[in-house]
Amino acid sequence: MTYKQATYDEPLIFELGKPGRRGHLPPKTDVPPREITIPSNMKRKELPQLPEMHEGEVVRHYLHLSQMNYCVDTGIYPLGSCTMKYNPKINEALARNEKMCYIHPYQPEETVQGILELIYNLQKILSELAGLPYCTLQPAAGAAGEYLGLNLIRAYHHDRGDYDRIDIITPDSSHGTNPASTVMNGFNIIEIESNKDGQVDLEALKAVVSEKTAGFMITNPNTLGIFESQIEEIAKIIHEAGGLLYYDGANFNAIVGMIRPGEMGFDVLHFNLHKTFSTPHGGGGPGAGAVCCSERLSSYLPVPVVEFDAENNRHFLNYDIPKTVGKTHGYYGNIAIALRGYAYICALGAEGLIETSKQAVLNANYVMRKLEEIDGLVLKFNRELPRKHECVLDATPLKHEIGVGAMDIAKMLISRGYHAPTVLFPLIVHEALMIEPTENENKESLDRYIEVFKEEIAKAREDPQYAHDAPYNTAVGRVDDAWATRNLILSWKMIKELEKKGQWPPKWPEDH
Amino acid sequence: MSNFSHPYIANSEQDKKEMLAELGFNSIDELYSDIPENIRFKGELKVPHFQSEFEVKEHIEKLLSKNISTREYRSFLGGGVLDVYIPAAQDELLRRTEFYSAYTPYQPETSQGTLHTLFEYQSMICELLAMDTANCTMYDWATGLGEAALMTARIKKKGNKFLYTAATAPNRKEVLKNYVSGAKLELIEIPYDKETGKMDKEKAIELMSEGVVGIYFENPNYFGVVEDEIEEVIKVAKERKIVVVAGVDTSSLGIIEAPGNYGVDIAIGDAQPIGAGPLNFGGPLAGVFAMKFDKKWTRQMPGRIVGITLTPKKGKWAFTNTLQTREQHIKRFRATSNICTNEALMAMSTAFHLALLGPQGIKETGESMYYNAHYLKEELEKIGVKTVFNSEFFNTFLIDLKIPKDKKEEFTKFMLERKIFAGIPFSFDGENYDYLITTSYLLKKKDLDDYVKAIVEWRNE
């Protein structure tokens, strides 16, 4: 396949347009104009310098930009732990329903019964899949879910007078958000090393568990794609110490409908609807989180909780949760995103959801076995163990041999019109290439990806500089991240100031 | 092996057989062989299933049909989100799958579209707020407030008190309280003046004592009142090296002064009222987070930031995520925030909207809202309904209705019968309710007259 990403010398929008042009005429009131009496200290003196363009120019500018972007619909996007699956188009259409878009969060309950019912249904489904009876959609993303889940754990301990439980334990393979959410909750983080099988080292765990243990956070299968088969033993150790178990649902696409975290001993979990349940990633968000928990954590859920009053056949927002942790989002979460996840689940049903997981796992193992045959790549940790929805290959041998590491491989792949795996994560694999194909790729697509992997590594072996100079065929060549951090040019306003000083556009160091 | 085929699943039974054969397995279940038998779920999952896309569509449309939208009834609801119109051109751009089905631009060379657009969003926010830098959004205004409080504590290191005005929206107060609960940051509420509804400036100055790291106020505040006597408070805050944080109604910024022009260090808000997207029942929104540039302080900012960089080979400038070493995927427990997924598409959507609207559009929508609100206020006064606070306001004000608790539901219904969402009830004493009214630029004179008429009828009941 030949590939060349569209490339435009697209200027910043502020350089386009001319005074007096209009891109949109907003509705105007028919109430007569009047003098604006805001005192001069608080009255806007100069209008913001926004673009002045006609509609067509605006569309053309952003159309050009959109074409300089790789997306799921362009090709395989096997970012490990990100679950970049196809975003069904019907979900986009449904989310544009006027009765979804144009409802205010504080409308009287009787005028939002439809959306409350949808939220309620989704909560029930997610609880069913989690094996944990209570659910809230309030977190706007996965990390917000972690934050809330840990909030519940803290509230539980404090409610019991257990103020000394300040330790959250997590393996060193965990997602970066886990320790970050832990610290934001005021907990102390203890990271334990993984064992030679890439799993939690039970001895290391036992060594750090104490009367200070508040909880344990893990994703299962873990970020190596390995299922933590000793999970019951882990749960026992934590529970006996008086701690609770948190399940990071980022890797849930491996086990949907087959294993329920509640039955593995977890007390609380979050789902990423933008991973497992197909809602778009939007170039970084919005996502949608959801937190499910056990009975003993339910009395701390954030308000309001969407409930159903069977007697009056009415859904309602329950604010009467005396021990609530309060609120972790201004309203009820990313509801228009949750709607997409609900539509996805309705389209697949139980059998379909289970099948998606199975095929995601099949695809990951297929790719893994083919890629580990490539000279220079190895599968770290127990080779024999099947992986689940993702696998992590290590390019350290190749790096030692010819100096070409995971990042170079990533850039060579994107030159060819395929997205790179997640690179350099998890941190316990030095030159990590973390691959999650999802059930969205068929055998031909995977075979092509594997072939391109082989071809590019072969090219690198012939000429390592080729690898260091990649990517080719993309809108821009390899960018210098260090320069960006040193110079910090973060807005057009800052560019204008540089212009005044004669320092824009940035000058090229001679040696480049 | 089941014979399952579905549009969301790529491989056929034949593909599966071939792949399993290559792996040396007979069934996918063998890939799960390492999972202990007793934790596998064996029951029947209660999950709905609809056979076709058509039926899914019917089901969801039927559910949604039970809602009544602000396109059917006249909405006087605000409080942080606003009823807006999304131009067709904006939605057309939002439907570009290149934007919405991309991931966070971790590979900048193949994601210049996302990065360039986010840089323009940051830049437009800076123009609107008169700030130097902005991040690529927080989840919403409320979580932005929580993050801002935590950031002031990181900047100041010494001190553990954060002041905020009592005229902050109740939902934002709740999130603020929650967000600082892990940080040992003490919150102190500054009262508002009972007559004007403005922040009590004497009290604010008195409270800005030793150990205070930041002060937060909203402008216009939750009651809609413009904080036009804030200068002295800001001056004292600066003298005492306290970080000034303001929450602003972004839709007011064609009329009301930009926070960067009156001494604010960190400005937050939501981009939804300036067209990030429709109401969406309160989410997704787009938390605005902007600040004056400071080499040290900017490094303490939460969230993602797009910056300019160079491509050494081709000698071009380009965009990339910068200051990533503040973020959780690298810094783990030392990160400035746990945020990973944000509201990037809403940020891009804001850029589309503002590019279409232009400076004139920002001014005109602001004027429409101002005219509507002031007309309605005067008409209500004519029938003897006063505003609770007699101060300058933009598009929101609190009307003195004092609906008793036991009549509240009846009042809501009464207004609904007239196709009106009456406003946000607010009670000072827990017994009687006043109503916070917001007039969007979608309302016309007749809608406002109908509101007044409805109140007259209610009073005559």
Short characterization:
The complex is a heterodimer of chains A (512) and B (461). Chain A has 512 residues and is of the alpha/beta class.
Question: Helix and strand succession of chain A?
Answer: HHHHEHEHEHEHEEEHEEHEEHHEEHHHH
- Spatial ordering of strands, largest sheet of chain B: 2-8-7-6-5-3-4
What is the averaged pLDDT score of chain B? 96
- In total, the number of domains of chain B comes to 3
Helix content of chain B: 25-40%
**CATH superfamily label of the largest domain in chain B:** Type I PLP-dependent aspartate aminotransferase-like (Major domain)
Spans where pLDDT lies below 50 across 5 or more residues of chain A: none
CATH superfamily membership of the domain at 92-346 in chain A: Type I PLP-dependent aspartate aminotransferase-like (Major domain)
Helix proportion of chain A: 25-40%
Query: At the third CATH level, what is the topology name of the domain at 92-346 in chain A?
Result: Aspartate Aminotransferase, domain 2
Q: How many beta-strand runs of chain B? A: 14
CATH class of the domain at 92-346 in chain A: Alpha Beta
Report on this structure.
Chain B: Keywords: Oxidoreductase. Chain B: Residues 8-451 form the Glycine cleavage system P-protein N-terminal domain. Chain B: InterPro entries: GcvPA, GDC-P_N, PyrdxlP-dep_Trfase, PyrdxlP-dep_Trfase_major, PyrdxlP-dep_Trfase_small. Chain B: It holds the Pfam family GDC-P. Chain B: GO terms for molecular function: glycine dehydrogenase (decarboxylating) activity. The complex is a heterodimer of chains A (512) and B (461). Chain A is α/β, with parallel strands linked by helices. Chain A has a domain at 92-346: 3-Layer(aba) Sandwich (Aspartate Aminotransferase, domain 2), CATH 3.40.640.10. In chain A, 36% of the residues lie in helices and 11% in strands. The mean pLDDT of chain A is 96. Chain B starts with 12 loop residues before the first helix and ends with a helix. The mean pLDDT of chain B is 96. Chain B is α/β, with parallel strands linked by helices. The radius of gyration of chain B is 26 Å and the shape is globular. Chain B folds into 3 domains: 13-64, no CATH class; 74-82 and 360-460, Aspartate Aminotransferase, domain 1; 88-354, 3-Layer(aba) Sandwich (Aspartate Aminotransferase, domain 2), CATH 3.40.640.10. Chain B has a 7-stranded mixed beta sheet with strand order 2-8-7-6-5-3-4, sandwiched between helices. Chain B has a 3-stranded antiparallel beta sheet with strand order 11-14-13, with helices on one face.
